[in-house]
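Lab notebook, design round three. We kept the backbone fixed and only want residue identities now. Task for the bench partner: fill in a sequence for the structure below.
Input C-alpha cells:
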C-alpha cells in the first residue's frame, strides 16, 4: 500500500510539471508569433469587435474649411518609365499633382473666405513632410515638388498616412482629407489597411481617404472602400491627371463647400435625410 501511494504521488507530480511545461511552451510560442507578426491586420480585426479607441483630439479649434494632405510615392519603383511616356513615373506624377493644385487657385478666387489648407508628404522607406498642412500657397507647394529627390527605397504608405493624419488635426478645419498617389503596395512600416481602419474609427469618419493606384491594380487597395474612402486606378499619365482632377476638384473641394460650416458627420446625415444636395456642374 505504501509503495502504491508513493507511485501515485509521483505520477501526479510528474503530470503537474508536464502541464506547467506545456503551458509555458504555449505562452512562448504565442509571444514569438506576436513578435514576428507584429500588430498585423488579424490583431486589428480582433480589436474591431472591442471598445472603440479614444477619439483624436484637435490641437486647435476647428471650423469652416478643408485640409488636404497629399501623399506621394517616392519609392524606387517610381523611377520606372510610365506607360505611354518616355519619362519616369515620379516626374509624370509630379506634373499631374502640380496641375491638380492649379485648380485650387480658381477655387480660392471664387471662395476667398473659405479656408483651404494643403500639405505635401513623400514616402519611400521613411516619411518626409515636404510642406506640412497649412494655408494654401501654391509657390510653396510647387517649390516642394521641384525639390523632391530621385526615388529610392521601399514603400511606407501606412506610416505616411499616420504622419499626415496628425498634421490634419493641427489644421483647424472640420473637413480633413488624405490623398495617396502610389504605384506599389506597402513594404514596410505600419500596414495601410490597419491605419486606415484606425483613422476611420478614431476620427469618427471625419478624415476621408482617397487612393490613386498609378500603374498598379487598384483592387490591391480595396480596403479603403471599407472605411468610406475611394480608390481609383490610373494606368498612365493622362489617366492620372484625370483621376486626380476628379477626386480633388470634383469631390474634395466640392464636398467641402456643399457641406458648409457643419461637422462632417452631421453634414453627410443632413444631405442624405433632409435637403438634397445641389447639383454641382463640376461633377
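Proposed sequence:
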Amino acid at each position: 500500500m505504501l509503495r502504491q501511494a508513493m507511485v501515485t504521488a509521483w505520477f501526479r507530480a510528474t503530470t503537474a510539471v508536464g502541464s506547467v511545461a506545456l503551458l509555458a511552451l504555449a505562452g512562448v510560442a504565442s509571444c514569438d508569433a506576436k513578435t514576428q507578426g507584429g500588430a498585423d491586420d488579424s490583431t486589428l480585426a480582433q480589436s474591431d469587435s472591442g471598445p472603440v479607441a479614444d477619439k483624436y483630439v484637435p490641437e486647435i479649434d476647428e471650423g469652416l474649411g478643408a485640409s488636404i494632405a497629399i501623399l506621394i510615392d517616392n519609392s524606387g519603383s517610381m523611377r520606372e518609365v510610365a506607360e505611354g511616356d518616355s519619362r519616369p513615373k515620379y516626374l509624370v506624377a509630379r506634373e499631374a499633382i502640380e496641375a491638380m493644385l492649379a485648380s485650387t487657385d480658381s477655387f480660392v478666387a471664387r471662395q476667398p473666405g473659405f479656408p483651404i489648407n494643403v500639405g505635401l508628404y513623400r514616402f519611400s522607406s521613411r516619411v518626409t513632410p515636404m510642406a506640412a498642412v497649412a494655408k494654401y500657397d501654391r509657390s510653396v507647394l510647387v517649390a516642394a515638388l521641384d525639390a523632391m529627390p530621385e526615388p529610392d527605397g521601399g514603400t511606407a504608405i501606412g506610416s505616411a498616412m499616420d504622419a499626415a493624419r496628425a498634421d490634419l488635426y493641427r489644421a483647424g478645419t472640420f473637413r480633413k482629407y488624405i490623398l495617396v498617389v502610389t504605384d506599389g503596395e506597402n513594404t514596410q512600416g505600419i500596414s495601410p489597411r490597419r491605419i486606415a481602419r484606425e483613422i476611420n474609427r478614431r476620427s469618427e469618419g471625419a478624415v476621408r481617404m482617397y487612393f490613386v493606384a498609378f500603374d498598379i491594380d487598384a483592387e490591391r487597395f480595396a480596403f479603403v472602400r471599407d472605411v468610406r474612402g475611394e480608390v481609383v486606378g490610373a494606368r498612365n499619365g493622362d489617366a492620372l491627371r484625370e483621376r486626380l482632377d476628379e477626386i480633388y476638384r470634383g469631390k474634395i473641394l466640392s464636398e467641402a463647400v456643399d457641406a458648409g460650416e457643419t461637422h462632417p458627420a452631421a453634414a453627410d446625415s443632413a444631405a442624405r435625410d433632409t435637403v438634397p444636395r445641389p447639383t454641382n456642374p463640376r461633377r
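Keep this in mind before ordering anything: Residues 1-11, 13-51, 261-283 have pLDDT under 50 and may be disordered.
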